[in-house]
Amino acid sequence: MTAPASADRPDDRPAGGPADRPDDRPAGGPADRPGGRPDDRPVTDAGAAPAGLLRRHRDFRMLWVGETGNKYGSAVTGLALPLIAVSTLHASTLQVALLGAAGWLPWLLIGLPAGVWVDRLRCRPIMLVSTAASLLLYATVPLAALAGALTLWHLLAVALLAGAAGVFFQTAYTAYLPQLLDPADQSEGNAKLHGSASAAGIAGLGSGGLIAQLAGPVNGLLANTATFLLSLWCTVRIGHREPARSERPRRALRQEIGEGLRLLASDVWFRTFALFGAASNLVLTGYQSLLVVFLIREVGVSEGTVGLLVAVASTGGIVGAAAARRIAARLGTSRAMLVLELALPALTVLIPLTGRGAGLAWYLVGGFGASCGVVAGNVIKATFQQRYCPPELLGRLSASSAVLNFGSIPLGALLAGVLGTQLGVRPALWLMTVGVPLAALILWCSPMRRVRDLPTERRAPVGGSAALPPVAMRAAVGGAAGKGGAPGKGGVAVGKGRVAGKGAAAGGGACALDAG
């Protein structure tokens, strides 16, 4: 889906079940336990099967192929819409920023109720309907251009409605993935999905810019037709059937929304990541909203060069996704997050130095560093949230945190547009990029710098204390997994090999946007 770049219920498993699908999940996975959740054993990747996840898990392979195609089309769209606005409709800097904001505004408008509906309904049908809606919406742009009726208002409406479809898709997708994968496979699955999303984004940006230069930016949207159809076909082909929901009385929408918000507010880990995601996305989106205008009008490069530059810089996302598990295994998930989110995205401060010729290297270095750090951090955070959150609240938690994370995106785009109009594009870009490392200070001021690894179990009730879980608390005060010790029950182990270190509680824990 274009809006959030940042995932079948009753017991209707087909006759024959997993035995008829030899490449399905290993015996003893979530499908074999009521509710599809892991038992209380330590969660590590040490017991993963030697074969790669894509080879041995057909359903994940179908999801991965469909999402890779979807992300390719979304990358083309993300570049094509502002190019259409700038090159075809001659939009102003503020109008381009409004276009960027429109795609994310639905998170503020419908994000919270979407989380409740996802927890009530089956996830896969929601994903299918959302993808089909986006396909039809984006198809109207080249049709309107062919009829000579394309306007900026049309683009804004398409971005807004496709963004609404993206809210439902992303919320359902986030709740669906942990049901599809065993806990030991989730970190590998997240790494593969984030890595392929980065690779698809690179291909989409590069080809989208080339198509825009050779055939016009409107024709770049035609690639969406095939990619959305591929995503629909692959999602339909997934054989997994979600476990039955536990029977509980249907409550008022406001009450269920409040439960997700209380969970977000009461837990120090969820609260930290949500606040950081909101601040980070505000400034990341701000500079990205100015980027096309900056490169074309200030630096003076062509549309095709814009796509090529963004594609090359985005290779950092592939590197980050591939390295995330190893970095987390070596440093611990909490320490890895600090390194990845504090150091690498800070390179965005180099981007306003970009100029012609060799000066383009400033953008490449800054964009590569930001993409690498943000995507690697997203892999770790996604695995943490899937393991740590109670399964019956995952949809509401995802939506509640996404309202903060993605709700700040339209604000960032609007702020950048106003600053670009009043101060000029390059000064506004300076303000936005300097804000990227400042946003990461939220992580430094949290309990993350006192622990090695993020926890996997939330012991407190939804309305309870925000205190750290016992294992994480022991780590915070210097408690006691010995050097080389096995990961304990409360830690997230991301990646293979030894995770627990001396003095730590065990176990690990576009330029890309922060998934929070």
From TrEMBL:
<feature type="transmembrane region" description="Helical">
    <location>
        <begin position="427"/>
        <end position="445"/>
    </location>
</feature>
<dbReference type="GO" id="GO:0022857">
    <property type="term" value="F:transmembrane transporter activity"/>
</dbReference>
<protein>
    <submittedName>
        <fullName>MFS-type transporter involved in bile tolerance (Atg22 family)</fullName>
    </submittedName>
</protein>
<feature type="transmembrane region" description="Helical">
    <location>
        <begin position="72"/>
        <end position="91"/>
    </location>
</feature>
<feature type="transmembrane region" description="Helical">
    <location>
        <begin position="152"/>
        <end position="176"/>
    </location>
</feature>
<keyword id="KW-0812">Transmembrane</keyword>
<keyword id="KW-0472">Membrane</keyword>
<feature type="transmembrane region" description="Helical">
    <location>
        <begin position="360"/>
        <end position="380"/>
    </location>
</feature>
<keyword id="KW-1133">Transmembrane helix</keyword>
<feature type="transmembrane region" description="Helical">
    <location>
        <begin position="97"/>
        <end position="118"/>
    </location>
</feature>
<feature type="transmembrane region" description="Helical">
    <location>
        <begin position="336"/>
        <end position="354"/>
    </location>
</feature>
<keyword id="KW-1003">Cell membrane</keyword>
<feature type="region of interest" description="Disordered">
    <location>
        <begin position="1"/>
        <end position="48"/>
    </location>
</feature>
<feature type="transmembrane region" description="Helical">
    <location>
        <begin position="261"/>
        <end position="284"/>
    </location>
</feature>
<dbReference type="Pfam" id="PF07690">
    <property type="entry name" value="MFS_1"/>
</dbReference>
<dbReference type="InterPro" id="IPR036259">
    <property type="entry name" value="MFS_trans_sf"/>
</dbReference>
<dbReference type="GO" id="GO:0005886">
    <property type="term" value="C:plasma membrane"/>
</dbReference>
<feature type="compositionally biased region" description="Basic and acidic residues">
    <location>
        <begin position="34"/>
        <end position="43"/>
    </location>
</feature>
<feature type="transmembrane region" description="Helical">
    <location>
        <begin position="401"/>
        <end position="421"/>
    </location>
</feature>
<dbReference type="InterPro" id="IPR011701">
    <property type="entry name" value="MFS"/>
</dbReference>
<feature type="transmembrane region" description="Helical">
    <location>
        <begin position="125"/>
        <end position="146"/>
    </location>
</feature>
<feature type="transmembrane region" description="Helical">
    <location>
        <begin position="304"/>
        <end position="324"/>
    </location>
</feature>
<feature type="compositionally biased region" description="Basic and acidic residues">
    <location>
        <begin position="8"/>
        <end position="26"/>
    </location>
</feature>
